[in-house]
Design brief:
single chain; alpha/beta; Glutamine Phosphoribosylpyrophosphate, subunit 1, domain 1; Rossmann fold; 3 domains; 8-stranded antiparallel beta sheet; 7-stranded antiparallel beta sheet
Length: 623
């Protein structure tokens, strides 16, 4: 959601901060700001809208700053060497310059950026107002800045430690004090922070994408930890205020992966990367001779997994749609009863858990607040937790007992595409792994391995039809509502297809299990309400054809995603997009690609920002 960047080092801070913010734009935001500390003086700029508006504010600045402060913006004078920056996604208070971060205290000496929510900010604010503090914004964050001021006694580190004991909620913060111009403080609880270690410089950010241009060395903070950064580098303290040493991780992603590479949008680039990303997800993890998946991340808990007799998969949004595919896989091929829960509901149900239950959590970012909370709830119940995440070192990756990384590189566009197909690919590996532990035969395992290995080439073949899919999108570009339908393994694709069209094009779309159409939704069907139907040649093909006939009889238009060679589908569907033949359990990976391309072209035809849809955030780090 919100993005944080902080800098302390030998170089000019401002360009690094702005570049970092731009690399966090995909997370979603409505305003931004930056504060620079230069020889005990602070210069702050804020703007509503895109980061380009903040850049305009800085470049057009005509205010009469003292000459010393002007140096903070002057590269020839070396510029400020310390600064913090933020992109805000509104929670408390409307998008405005007043509510944008960084926030300050009464004195204008303490400056702070914050991700998360301070749940008891109203009580803190009331108490501080009674003591004479004057607030300028509607945000919960400002209460923390004033609280630190109230507790400050010449040592910022100690004041921050005391303040964090008072607040309730989640936070990722970076803060500095004008009277202590040689250090910067950061702390984390429930909201991600990573510390990048460069040569005589330290960069703090909420996401590695903001720092990987400058360093590959990173330290991931855990909940309750705080870092004090000065000229000697970072000092890290645990939740008991004891200084600790943490491992330095190597950032695996390459900066080129976060560039558009000649594509007009990140989204279409990421759709076209899927042959490679699916291959990367399964590379080195398939053993044909044994019909087996080798998952090194699960080695330590392999015996526990062998005894599991129930699985709960927990996820949100697109990841949940992938989880629903996994439910079919695990039950059919591994023989394990499986259910899928919304992460944000998991904690609020009375869960029946025991030592033979496994909770699998899925999140591209590894920072989804509701999913992370579900992990903690499961661990409190003593249940085995497994993670499927893309971001190495993320909170979920560290909190779960074991897990599997997606290895698809940074997914910049807010709408998930390559992470989705990777998640299903990983679930197929997990199904193979758990199935072979149980009753799955060698022959069945080998057949699955062969088909998984063939997926990249089959995805490439679908991508070759991009031009045809664009023409279909043009044909339906004036439609205002869509139904997405499928059965069995492609039932979850109906939900995911609808999500993609909604979030990219803002067109009303609903996903249905196809058999449910006659139980109510078919009342909506007419010549102006088209259906996008997933109808591969599988075990429910004839059922799907029957449901399509019902739509056709009511003058409904149908776009069908069908298996290559299926000519009779053209007698029913108005438009057909073909996918190659594969195992039924793997068809959702192929079915997803036409739905992604269709949604993309529908949005582009409307002139919308497909990489950053309105009101959405890439990483939802608040409940």
């Amino acid at each position: 959601m919100c993005g944080i960047v902080g800098y302390f080092g030998k170089n000019e801070a401002l360009p690094i901060l702005i570049d970092g913010l731009k690399r966090l734009e995909y997370r979603g935001y409505d305003s931004s700001g930056v504060a620079l500390l230069h020889q005990s003086k602070v210069l702050c700029f804020k703007a509503v809208g895109k980061i380009v508006e903040l850049e305009k504010k800085i470049s057009e600045d005509k205010s009469p700053h003292p000459p010393l402060l002007k140096h903070a913006l002057d590269p020839e004078q070396g510029g400020a060497k310390i600064g913090i920056a933020h992109t805000r996604w509104a929670t408390h208070g409307v998008p405005s310059e007043q509510n944008a971060h960084p926030h300050s205290d009464c004195s204008g000496k303490i400056w702070l950026v914050h991700n998360g929510i301070i749940e008891n900010y109203q009580q803190i604010k009331k108490h501080l107002i009674e003591k004479g503090h004057i607030f300028k914004s509607e945000t919960d964050t400002e209460a923390l800045a004033h609280l630190i001021e109230d507790l400050y006694d010449g040592d910022l580190t100690e004041a921050v430690k005391k303040a964090l004991k008072v607040i309730t909620g989640t936070y990722g913060i970076v803060v500095f004090h004008a009277d202590e111009p040689n250090k910067i403080i950061a702390a984390k609880k429930g909201s991600p922070l990573v510390v990048g270690l460069g040569e005589n410089e330290t960069i703090i950010a909420s996401d590695v994408s903001a720092i990987m241009r400058y360093t590959k060395q990173a330290i991931y903070l855990d909940d309750g930890e705080m870092v004090e950064i000065d000229a000697n580098g970072p000092r890290i303290f645990d939740s008991f205020n004891a200084e600790i040493t943490k491992d330095i991780s190597e950032i695996e992603w390459d900066i080129n992966q976060a560039e558009k590479g000649g594509y007009p949008h990140f989204l279409i680039k990421e759709i076209f990367e899927q042959p490679e990303t699916v291959m990367n997800s399964v590379r080195g993890r398939l053993v044909l001779e044994e019909g087996m998946a080798k998952l090194g991340g699960l080695d330590a808990v392999a015996d526990k997994i062998r005894n599991i007799d129930r699985i709960i998969i927990v996820a949100c949004g697109t990841a949940r749609c992938a989880a629903l595919v996994g439910e079919y896989m695990l039950e059919e091929y591994a023989g394990i009863p499986t259910e899928v829960d919304y992460a944000h509901e998991f904690r609020y149900k009375k869960q029946i858990l025991n030592d033979k239950t496994a909770v699998i959590v899925m999140s591209q970012s590894g920072e989804t607040a509701d999913t992370l909370a579900a992990v903690k709830e499961a661990k409190e119940k003593g249940v085995l937790t497994l993670g499927i995440v893309n971001t190495v070192g993320s909170s979920i990756a560290r909190e779960t007992d074991a897990g599997i990384y997606n290895h698809v590189g940074p997914e910049i566009s807010v709408a998930s595409t390559k992470a989705f197909t990777s998640q299903i690919s990983i679930l197929s590996l997990l199904t193979l792994f758990m199935g072979r532990q149980r009753d799955m035969s060698l022959v069945t395992g080998q057949r699955i391995v062969n088909e998984i290995q063939a997926l990249p080439d089959k995805i490439r073949k679908i991508l070759e039809a991009d031009g045809e899919i664009k023409k279909i999108a043009e044909k339906y570009s004036k439609a205002t509502s869509f139904a997405f339908l499928g059965r069995k393994y492609n039932h979850p694709l109906a939900f995911e297809g609808a999500i993609k069209l909604k979030e990219l094009s803002y067109i009303h779309a609903e996903g249905f299990a196809a058999g449910e159409m006659k139980h109510g939704p078919i009342a909506m069907i007419d010549e102006n309400f088209p259906s996008f139907y997933f109808v591969p040649e599988d075990s429910v093909y004839e059922k799907n054809v029957s449901n399509m006939q019902e739509i056709k009889a009511r003058a409904g238009k149908i776009i069908a995603v069908a298996t290559e060679g299926d000519e009779k589908i053209k007698d029913i569907a108005d438009d057909v997009i073909y996918i190659p033949k594969t195992l039924e359990m793997l068809t959702p990976i192929l079915s997803a690609v036409p739905a992604q391309l269709f949604a993309y072209h529908m949005a582009v035809l409307k002139g919308l920002d497909v990489d950053k849809p309105r009101n959405l955030a890439k990483s939802v780090t608040v409940e």
